[in-house]
Amino acid sequence: METSVMQVEKTIVELDIDQIQNVIQKCLDDGIPAWEIVEGMSRGMTQVGAQFEIGEYYLADLVLSGEMMKEGMALLEDKFDHTQLGKKGTVILATAKGDIHDIGKNIVGTMLTAAGFKTIDLGVDCHENEILEAVRSSGADMIALSVLLTTMVGAIKDLVEALTEAGLRQKIRVAIGGACCSEQLAQEMKVDAYGEDAVKAVRIFESFAESLKQGN
Ligand code: B12
Q1: What pLDDT, on the 0 to 100 scale, is given for residue 149?
Q2: Most buried pick, 1, 70, 93, 180, via CB within 10 A?
Q3: Which of 148, 172, 204, 208 to mutate to test the pocket of ligand 1 (most atoms within 8 A of CB)?
Q4: What sign does the dihedral 36-42-48-54 (CA atoms) show?
Q5: How far is it, in rounded angstroms, from Cα 57 to Cα 7?
C-alpha cells in the first residue's frame, strides 16, 4: 500500500505541482512528522535530478521541482519544534565557491533545523574567506559544505587550509556532501565526514555536536 509520504515522493517525481500542497497536508493530517515528509521530498528531488541526467527531464522540469520544494517547505516550516532550535549547536551551510547548486544544501539545512540545530546559510558560490568570517562572527563550530562540481573540489582544500591558517581547524568540524563527494574525497581533503544524504547529514552533525560537547 502506498503511504502518504510515498505519495509526496511520487508527486515530486511526476512534477504534479497542483497536488503537492494537498499530499503534504494529507501527511500532516495523518500525523506524519515534518522531517519524514522532507525526507520523502528529498528522495523525489534526487530522482528528478537522475531523470535530468539521463535526458528524460529538462531544465524547466528542474525549475518546476524546485518550485514544488519551496511550496512544500512553506507548509512545513512552522511544524518544526523551534523551541529546540540551536540546542545542538550552530552549523554554517554553504555551497563551494564556483558552484551554484543549492537544492541539496537547502534540504540539508531544513533537516538540520528540524533536528534542533541553528543554521546560518551563506548561499552558493562561497569563498573560504566568507565562510571563515561567518565562523568568527557567529561562533559556529560546524560547517556543512555542498560541492557538486568536480572542478570545484579544490574549494574543500582551500577551506581546510584557511581554517588551519586561522588556527581554527582543531575547533571546527567540517562535513562535505554533493554529487562529486565521497568518503575517499573526504579523507583526501582531510575533512571530518562525508554524507550521502540529508538523513546522514543529521547523524553526522549530531555526532559532531556530541564530540564537541565532550571536548574531543
Ligand atoms: C539540478 C542540477 C542543476 C541545476 C541547479 C539548480 C539549483 N538551484 O541547485 C542547474 C540547472 C542550475 C545546474 C547547473 C549546472 N550543472 Co548541474 N546538476 C543538477 C543535477 C541534475 C541535480 C542536483 C540536485 O539538485 N539533486 C537533488 C538533490 C536533493 O541532491 P544533492 O544535491 O545531491 O543533495 C543531497 C546529497 O548530496 C546530500 N548533500 C548535499 N550537500 C550536502 C552537504 C553535506 C555537508 C552533507 C553531509 C550532505 C549533503 O544531501 C542532499 C539531500 O539528500 C545534478 C546531477 C546529480 N547527480 O547531482 C547535476 C550536476 C551536479 N550538474 C553538473 C554540471 C556540469 C552543471 C553545470 C556546469 C552545467 C553547465 N554546463 O552549465 C552547471 C553548473 C554551474 C555552476 N557554476 O555551478 C554535473 C557535475 C559534474 C561534475 N562531476 O562536475 C552534474 C553531476 C550532472 C552531470 N552528471 O553532468 N545543475
Answers
A1: 97
A2: 93
A3: 148
A4: negative
A5: 20
Q: Which parts of the chain have pLDDT scores under 50?
A: 1
Summarize pLDDT for 75-89 with one digit per residue, the tens. 988 887 777 777 789
Amino acid at the residue 96: A
CA distance 157 to 215: 25
Where do the DSSP E strands lie in 139-214?
142-146, 173-177, 193-194
Would you state the cell numbers that stand for residue 82, as one nine-digit string? 523551534
| pTM exceeding the 0.70 threshold for the entire prediction | yes
Other Cβ atoms closer than 10 A to 136 = 11
CB 101 within 8 A of CB 146: yes
* Whole-number pLDDT of residue 18: 96
- The residue assigned the cell 574549494 is 155
The residues with which 173 forms a beta bridge, in sequence order, are 142
**Which three cell numbers, joined as nine digits, stand for 79?**
511544524
CB 171 within 8 A of CB 139: no
Q: What is the pLDDT of residue 2?
A: 63
Please tell me the distance between residue 151's alpha carbon and the centre of ligand 1 in angstroms. Answer: 12
Atom of ligand 1 nearest to the CA of 107: 52
Provide the pLDDT for residue 1: 45
